[in-house]
Amino acid sequence: MKSSFRAGSTFTYPTTQANTKSIAPEEPILFYLLSDSLNHINNENPRLDGVHDQPQDTHLSLKNALIDCIERISTVMTSPHIRSTVASIYPLQEWEGRVVGIEENRFIANLIDVTAREDFESSEAVIPFEEISRYDVSRMQIDSVFRWVIGYEKSIDGTRKRVSHIVFRDFPKVTKADLDEGRKFADSLLSAIHKE
Amino acid sequence: MRHEPEINGVSIVLLGSFKPSSFSPEWFIEEKLLPGNATHSFEIEVVSPLLTRFTMDWLQLHVDVNRFQISTLQYPCVRIRDLAMRVFHEFHPRSTFRAIGINRDAHFRLSSERERCTIKNLLAPIGPWAGISSLFDLSSEGSGMSSLTMRQIVQSDEEVNRILSVNVESSFLVENEIEGFHIQVNDHTDFGDDHINELQMVRCLESQFDEAITKGDDIIDYVMTLPINAQSKVDR
After folding, report:
1. Whether this model's pTM surpasses 0.95
2. What is the pLDDT of residues B20-73, one digit of tens each?
3. In chain B, what residues touch A15 (CB-CB under 8 Å)?
4. Tens of pLDDT along A21-31?
5. Do A11 and B62 touch (CB under 8 A)?
6. Which among B7, B51, B86 has CB closest to A88?
7. Å between A89 CA and nearest CA of chain B
């Protein structure tokens, strides 16, 4: 068993931009690059005891300068006025739909209620083409799969509106590696059957 | 969820080795992974060999040499799963990964300081600290828990370590920091030195994404209903 978990968190980095006059837009990037450089120094040269080629004081002064810089920027970045710059959609109801019929101005779909955590198609909907983008209309086929969300959108200025959003899913295409894996699985299944 | 968050997000974080400059918005459009028409606006922060960061409507992307992070604030959140899978399955099939994280984030505006205190005191009571109140007095207003992380070891063996973490803290993304409250649920799977390949990553996302989001929703909902449940116990 492993003694400890490796360093490297998969918690989300902030994906927002600063919104105050005191923070230039490039500073989050600068902050990131400086942090990254410091990590690099710590990881690549964990021992500052003269073992490495470069003299100890060069590493130390570089490291101290970076720490200084990061501290100054991070102080600014903890401003309480930092806000998200993108509207957020809070779902009240979500379905996964499968197209079962396409007519002149609408399509028919069977729906799975994702919000109720169902895993079977339990209802049918007739949806006009106005509800979806032209791009989606052009590529829709029988058995195309989509997600339909009804919820509230909160914009950055605090406006709240009800939205209905249909998005067709983009599944990964079947690749040669998938086919090879499938063949391998079929072969192993076949040989197991033959053994019995 | 019964409480409506101000900011509602989901993200996928992949740790491994990446070439940030190959994930430019132009590349995504060229490969038809993202739409390239005028109705979709790109906000490009940086595209460089060290870091690529951009936003497009529902999508936020951050790629550095060790991390590929794809986030959304707009449901259906399954779009980021589909896109991450397509990027690596169809275009970077030789990629390897040492960890996968699926994050559920919610930033709330609390109705009052009292509500915040109730949640803080229920999650991390100050009672046990009373014995050292002469050294560390938590009785004044605003004192007490500032950030809390709880962890569940879901799986720990030779090949895989999976941890579910819940982090609760003040939110700086909600305009008034006194009212802002942030809960993040991180489902982290670590593959150690035996990095997994792209196919295994895809299978992992397929099997864990929905579960992680559902669990995240339930945990966030539970934390946010703590004051209501506490009040109803008092009323009884």
Report:
1. no
2. 999 999 999 999 898 877 566 888 999 999 999 999 988 999 999 999 999 999
3. 9, 11, 55, 60, 62, 69, 71
4. 333 444 455 55
5. no
6. B7
7. 5
| Distance from the Cα of residue B91 to its chain's centroid | 25
Of A15, A89, A169, the CB nearest to B82: A169
Counted residue by residue, chain A has a size of 196
Region label for A117, one of left (φ > 0), alpha (ψ between -120 and 50) or beta (otherwise): left
Residue B113 reports pLDDT greater than 60:
yes
Q: DSSP letter at A142?
A: T
Rounded to 10°, the helix B198-224/B113-123 angle is 120
Contacts with B78 from chain A: Cβ below 8 Å: 147, 169
CA gap A97, B222 in Å, rounded: 29
Contact A10 B99 (CB under 8 A): yes
DSSP string, A74-131: HHHHT-TT-B-SS-EEEEEEEEEEEEEEE-SSEEEEEEEETTTT--S--EEEEEEGGG
Query: Closest Cα to residue B70, out of B36, B96, B100, B94?
Result: B100
Q: A-chain residues within 8 Å CB-CB of B208?
A: none
